[in-house]
Amino acid sequence: xxxxxxxxxxxxxxxxxxxxxxxxxxxxxxxxxxxxxxxxxxxxxxxxxxxxxxxxxxxxxxxxxxxxxxxxxxxxxxxxxxxxxxxxxxxxxxxxxxxxxxxxxxxxxxxxxxxxxxxxxxxxxxxxxxxxxxxxxxxxxxxxxxxxxxxxxxxxxxxxxxxxxxxxxxxxxxxxxxxxxxxxxxxxxxxxxxxxxxxxxxxxxxxxxxxxxxxxxxxxxxxxxxxxxxxxxxxxxxxxxxxxxxxxxxxxxxxxxxxxxxxxxxxxxxxxxxxxxxxxxxxxxxxxxxxxxxxxxxxxxxxxxxxxxxxxxxxxxxxxxxxxxxxxxxxxxxxxxxxxxxxxxxxxxxxxxxxxxxxxxxxxxxxxxxxxxxxxxxxxxxxxxxxxxxxxxxxxxxxxxxxxxxxxxxxxxxxxxxxxxxxxxxxxxxxxxxxxxxxxxxxxxxxxxxxxxxxxxxxxxxxxxxxxxxxxxxxxxxxxxxxxxxxxxxxxxxxxxxxxxxxxxxxxxxxxxxxxxxxxxxxxxxxxxxxxxxxxxxxxxxxxxxxxxxxxxxxx
Length: 556
Description:
Catalytic activity: ATP + protein L-histidine = ADP + protein N-phospho-L-histidine
Organism: Streptomyces aquilus
CATH superfamily of the largest domain: PAS domain
InterPro entries: HATPase_C_sf, HATPase_dom, His_kinase_dom, PAS, PAS-like_dom_sf, PAS_fold, sCache_3, Sensor-like_sf
Strand order of the largest sheet: 6-5-9-8-7
Number of helices: 15
CATH architecture of the largest domain: 2-Layer Sandwich
GO molecular function: ATP binding; phosphorelay sensor kinase activity
Strand content: 15-25%
Order of helices and strands: HHHHEHEEEHHEEHHHEEEHHHEHEEHEE
CATH class of the largest domain: Alpha Beta
Protein name: histidine kinase
């Protein structure tokens, strides 16, 4: 039988807030609700006492004013002596009982009482100073007198001519004011208790909701998770884009910003607003579905996956496939060059055998002529290209493509209209464009009789115009825009990855320079790709485009 481990003393004696978020939130909300209730009750009680005092003083003043307005009282004050059974005392007592006032005192100008609740006080002077009332002023006050603390109202008493002949003082017992205040407290506390109970119930419901949403984690656990998430998101070498339920970007890690070429300003915006219309925005917004979706952003080839989240949003991951695609294209080119070199090796062996035979037959003149023809053929190919295309990278590309085309049984022609000076601003970009167009054309005409690919590169001012024509089957009109879409291809994917990248890159590179890329039907059938690159050449002293009548062209 196992034994449970005793709780460490330090943990048993630990004081403070409970660790669970549910308990912490509940306690904090209960404390807030209780504090608000106590504060509201205090704020209500503080003015209530003053309000009751004011009401009592105004009531006393109103009784005094009503009493002073009776002309018979003023007449009796002037014509009768003060006495316990005099007319002034009787009228004052009648008014006191009718109004439930504590006292109604009527006095002359010397402050001598003509009426009082205690008959023995009649004839004596009042205990409080009546000067203000005798001076014609109406007075409201809380004061101490012979009958204790009371709310008082004092007004002058005037005769029929308006002369002040005395004053009327009316008191409301302060105990009645206090009783009203104490009587109001239980009801107030009942309301406060009800409000506290409602607040406690609301606090419990909110705490339960927070508990479910946070899976009852402690604040320290949530803080640690957030720190770990930030470290993970900004440390991984894979782009992460989080979108909320409205489709707006709410998170971008560092790698996503690098791959998409955007910054923190994209947060709070839709993919269309942040990236512009295109396939990348469609993939992130979920308008294109699938796994390992291919998209191109700038010069980067990206693989995107999008997964919905429980709150109605989504998380998209991006992987950079640019280097892999470049390596794949280089591998394809290398394989083609190897095949071409192998063919040239065989051809060279055949020529050497022919030369050896001519020498053994002592046909020396024929041998010299044969060697000159072979060397002249190779020299003509390189010279024709470099004469029309001054940029060394582009010229080398076309010389290599000519060798590959010859191995594949395709005639690669360099148009007589081709003239391109060595003033390219971005030669690597144009090499990518021409290489992809030529590869696409070679694939289109491969295996067909009389296959031919024609390349035309011209400079028009500072604009470069690139044309590649082939004698393949062509592209139907309804598919001429689809060919520039990432991932679209009519051929089986190669071993190293997906097809449908080259033409998409061509259009992206052209549009990045403010140009265009389009495909039409070539004369005599096949496809003709036209790429226009404004501001592709530097300087104003460029060679004008050479225009010659159409004529049969020599094979390069």
